[in-house]
Structures are given as C-alpha cells and as structure tokens.
Amino acid sequence: MKTRYLFLFFFIQLLMPHALKADSDTTQVYRLPIFDNINSTTWVHVKHGFEEAAKLNADVIIVHLNTYGGEVIFADSIRTKILNTSTPVHVFIDNNAASAGALISIACDKIFMRPGANIGAATVVNQTGEQMPDKYQSYMRSTIRATAEAHGKDTLITKNDTIIKWIRDPRIAEAMVDQRLVIPGLVDSSQVLTFTALEAIEYNYCDGLADNMDDVIKQLGYQNYTIKSFEPSLYDNLKGFLNSPMLRGLLILIIIGGIYFEMQSPGIGFPLAIAVLGAILYFAPLYIDGLAANWEIIIFVIGIALIALEVFVIPGFGVAGVSGIILTITGLTLALVKNVAFNFENVDNSDFVEALLTVFLGMSGGIILTIYLSNKLITAEKGVFSKIALKTSQDVNLGYIAVDNTLSALIGKTGIASTVLRPSGKVLIEGEYYDARATDHFIEKNEPIKVISYSSGQLNVRQYVQKL
Predict the structure, then answer these.
(1) Cis bond upstream, residue 423 (ω within 30)
(2) Considering the domain 396-463, what is its CATH architecture?
(3) ∠ CA(460), CA(464), CA(466), 5° rounding?
(4) Interval 419-456: pLDDT, tens
(5) d(Cα 442, Cα 56) in Å, to the nearest integer?
(6) Which CATH class is domain 22-234?
(7) What are phi and psi of 465, to 5 degrees?
(8) What is the pTM for the complete model shown?
C-alpha cells in the first residue's frame, strides 16, 4: 500500500512541471469592445479596460472596433493611451473605423479587418456633419500623421542604395483628413481617403483579413490562449455620462440657474436644492478621478457664499461679489484640469482653455437662460408656471383690508432707508420702522425716500431728491 502511494506521489511530481509549463504557455488575450460613437463614456471604458488588463498581466490587448467616429478630444486621449502602453495593442475592425475610429486604429500595433470593412474619412465635422474650420483640420492632420509616424520605418538595403520606407505612410493617414492632399495613383483632390480592407492591405494599413477574434489571435501567432472581455459596470456608464463636456456645461447652467432663482425668492427651497444637486453631479466624478481636489471644491463653495453675502447682507456690489465670482470660476475650472495644487506643468494649454470655455459658456448660458425662463415661464401671463405665481394684489380701493389701513396716511411723507431696498426692505419715517418696497430701482441704506403709495400692508417708496 505504501509503495502504491509513493509511486503516485512521484508521478504527480513528474507531471506538475508540465502542467505549470502549459499554464505559462497560455496567452492571456484582453478584448476591449468599442461599438458606439467615441465619447466620454468610451474614454472611461478604455481607461478601466487598460487598468484591468494590467492587473490580469494580459499578454496582448485587442480592440474590437466598429464605429462611425465621435469626439476628437476623446479619440486623441485613447490613441495616446494606446501609443504609451507597453502591452501590444492590436485592433480588429469589424466593419467600420471611420473618423475618430481611424485615428484609434492607426495607433494600434497591427490592424486586422473583416472582409468588406472600411477605414478612413477622418475629417473633423460638427454635430450637423458640416466640415469644421481649417484650424481644427490642421490639428487633426498633425495628430493622425504623428500617429502613423509613431510606428517607425523599414530599412531596405540594396546593391546601389538604402531605401527607407514608412511602415505606415504618414501622407496616407493625412489624406484621410485633408481632401486637398493628392497621392498619385491613390487619391485626387476631390475626396478624403477611405480604404476598403483589400486596399488597406495593399498600402500597409491592414495586416490581415479576419472573420472573428479567433482568426485575429491565430494570425498573431497565438495557439493556446484565453480571452477576457471588458464588461462595463453601471458605474462606468454613469461616470462616462457625467464626464461629458456638454453635460458639464449643462450642470454649470443648472448651478447658476438654481442660485439665481433662489435669490429671487430667498429661503431654502427647490431652486437651491437643484443647484446643490448640480454641484454634486459636477464635482463627484471629477473628485473620484482625482481631478477635483478638496481645496478646489472649497474654493467654489466660498465663492458661492461670498456672492450670497454680497446680495443679501452687504450693500452695493463690491469686493465680496467680485471675489465670489472669481473664486467660483476658479473652482469650477481647476476641477477640470490635471493640476497638482498650483503646479500646471502637466496641463496642456488646450486643456486649460477648454476647461475655461466650458465654465464661461455654462455660466453665461445659465444666466441668460434663467432670466429668459423666469420671464417666459413665471411672470408671463401664459407662462407654464404662471398659475403658481402670485401676480395680483388685494388693493384697498377694491375693498380688501387685510392689515391696518392707517398706513395710507404716510403717503407723501419722507424718511430714510434703514436697510438696502432690493427692492424690499425697511424704512424709517418719523421715528417708526415700516416694511417698504422700492418701485423704481434699488435704494441704498440711509438714502432719503418718499412714500408714493400703499398696498398689501407695504409702503411703496422711491428715492427722494430735494429740490433747491
């Protein structure tokens, strides 16, 4: 019996090295699918995917791509991520790699295409499909040309000469953006370049045809492999949605609009709650990503507090109001860039300008839209919310007597504003304090006033200027 167990033990020991070797020979392939337009959500998925591939010690990453394009800023971030990773990254174009998709594909080490697939047409267009001005095209031309150049050159030594040839000709990549570029025998000046799969193989922009992922992996030379596919979580999708520049602008609009409506009717209410929710949705994903630091959020909060202090407490519009606006803009802007404290060495000028424009456009749009909506939805006779707004007054001459009507005796008397009237506040007349409302414009504290009318328990006053 002991001899049998001893034999079994040695047999297992003999097989274990072979089993370990088999495991070590298994290639770990990480599949990263991109099947939608390139946007902020795609960028979040790519970052998460590359992190997951690194944790798995993946031997190779294959981008499974089928897209008509998307936002250049995120496509540029993805192509930079691909170029800077040490793990080999290949792409399988499953039908389409247009525009931003072409840029991402060219960044990969090898390109495989399904028969009948296309790559190219990388001209920068706006939301309506119209071609953007040349400064945008110039940036895209440079980016896609540099991406092709990143794959280096081949050197061919002949008897008479040394021929150096690009692995991926940068001129071909540029022709996918600029229709003015002419490459004899390939493209004229009437159209941007788009390759079919066979054309891409001919000009070294495709390394092979494949029907599926298994075909791609086998052409790469891997026989024993396992595939792990990226699967986005609900949080990844939510984070990507909240990181959209358009949504950030909208959230800034909501923040400013909520604060504006709250100032129109002071007191903790629905507009303030909406503004706070907008601020949380704005800062939360940036804070989780490490872009928004605690002090940047505190700067924003202090800025809002100073603006509120200026409106409700301090007369006029001075240091507190201006400081509040500056701090609010600073907090919102710095949260969008990759600065460390006040060190901006790792921040591109374009990133800073984009962040600043996002904030300014959001704030400007918020102010304009809230003023417009307050007039159209509330104060207008047929506004959507006009029925919930109080627009009538119970005038004394119509028989309404809700308060002591002896205040009507003060009509014509003069006094001083004991608080700022914006437009409501307190006035001092003959040693007594009364509620009052400025009818023409705001009246500063201690300015002389004159009572011109009385309604609904409140004096209506205007600034009094004595005639000489």
Answers:
(1) yes
(2) Beta Barrel (2.40)
(3) 155
(4) 888 778 889 988 888 888 888 778 888 889 998 888 76
(5) 66
(6) alpha beta
(7) -115, 115
(8) 0.62
